[in-house]
Amino acid sequence: MAAPALSVAMIVRNEAALLPEFLESVKPWADEVCVVDTGSDDSTPELAADAGCKVAHFAWCDDFAAARNESLALCGGDWVLVLDADERIAPEDGLRLRELVAGPRDACYRFTTRNYTNTAHLSGFVPCAPGDPWARGFLGWSPSTKVRLFPHGVGARFEGCIHELVNESLARAGIRITHADMLIHHYPLLCPPERIRAKEALYLRLGRDKVAACPDDPQAHVELGRQLVDMGDHGAAAAAYRDALRLAPENAEILRELGATLFLIGRHDEARRALELALRRDAGMADAWRNLGVIHAYAGAWIEALPCFEEAARLDPANPVLFEYLGEALHQSGRADEAARARERARALRGGRDEA
User: Which of 19, 69, 143, 239 registers the highest number of CB atoms within 10 A of its CB?
Assistant: First the structure.
């Protein structure tokens, strides 16, 4: 009996610089790569065809879900894995993918994506470990999760013109969601600056359209807020998070993101209150404890900052940045020996090197 076939589904536009490496990386474990081009004016479609991919063209209509669904229609495998040209999977995880597709077809799989960035104030930011070959020069990454792998032919459809998801259609088909213990490495900033700016503008326009179409959906407002943060418009981002919070006032993650954004625009008291409310609802968010500690430290309130950094380090003990904050808080509190130990822990986590 033949092994189940795995199709990689992707949508592309002007990815000639990234596509060859991507295709080389998936060659060992993908049975086919199905590429839907949404309007490239470079050699992307030709490169894909020359590499043996299935290639189709899609007239862009400001709808990522429609383009994704076109890529699903192109697939002929038993399973579909959704990736983009600026994403990579480690070779050992490619082998593990083959093990998953040999399993039952009543499950789909959610992956954690590491979105590499140099913006350390993002929620959930994790610094790259020293010598990490996947860092590619970036300071760290922020995590996100999404269903990426699912059986083909069960009625899977993407929904949402932006930040499109396949989850609801799979749930309707009775497919259970399972977390896959492997990573997708995402490099959104490897594109030329002009392409990054154009993509940001597109996402912002579509995000505002989504909010206009779904004004009672808190997630639409959150997505808009995150896009505004990415573009550095923190004042508008805070307004978007407040709109989300009015619709979901108990949501700890929205409060956390609002607090971080308010701090960046200098509204420190409001930021502190938002983070304190977030932690009352969910005390397990290390980055919220860190940000609350930073607010206290900024005000010179080291006695209040210290337990925040202690809790953040307890929750995320592999993060050297948290032990650096903790070391400074201990030093400011007159606990020199403990400060030295915290700083040594940070140095050890950085592979024996001090922060650059």
Answer: 19
The answer to whether position 35 is within a domain reads yes
Q: pLDDT tens, 243-269?
A: 999 999 999 999 999 999 999 999 999
pLDDT digits 0-9 by tens, 291-332: 999 999 999 999 999 999 999 999 999 888 899 999 999 999
Rounded CA-CA distance 320/318 in Å is 6
CA dihedral sign, ordered 99, 105, 106, 108: positive
Q: pTM of the full predicted structure?
A: 0.85
Say if residue 246 is in the same domain as residue 144: no
pLDDT digits (tens, 9 = 90+) for 59-90: 999 999 999 999 999 999 999 999 999 999 99
Q: Tell which of 190, 218, 238 closes a domain.
A: 190
Integer Cα distance of 6 and 81 in angstroms: 7
In a domain, 296, yes or no: yes
What is the C-alpha separation between 342 and 325, in angstroms, rounded? 9
CATH number reported for the structural domain that contains residue 347 in this entry: 1.25.40.10
Residues 6+ apart with CB under 8 A from 136: 116, 187, 190
How many other β-carbons are positioned within 10 Å of the β-carbon of residue 133? 8
Residues 6+ apart with CB under 8 A from 350: 129, 130, 320
- Helices assigned H by DSSP within the chain: 19-26, 44-50, 64-74, 91-101, 167-172, 193-213, 218-230, 234-247, 252-264, 268-281, 286-298, 302-315, 320-332, 336-349
For the record, the structure tokens of 25 come out as: 């990386």
Measured CA to CA, the distance from residue 129 to residue 10 in angstroms comes to 30
- Residue 156 dihedral angles phi and psi, to the nearest 5°: -65, 130
Contact 144, 115 (CB under 8 A): yes
The parent domain of residue 109 ranges over 6-190
The whole-number pLDDT of residue 356 equals: 43
State the average pLDDT over residues 205-219.
96
Domain presence at residue 273: no
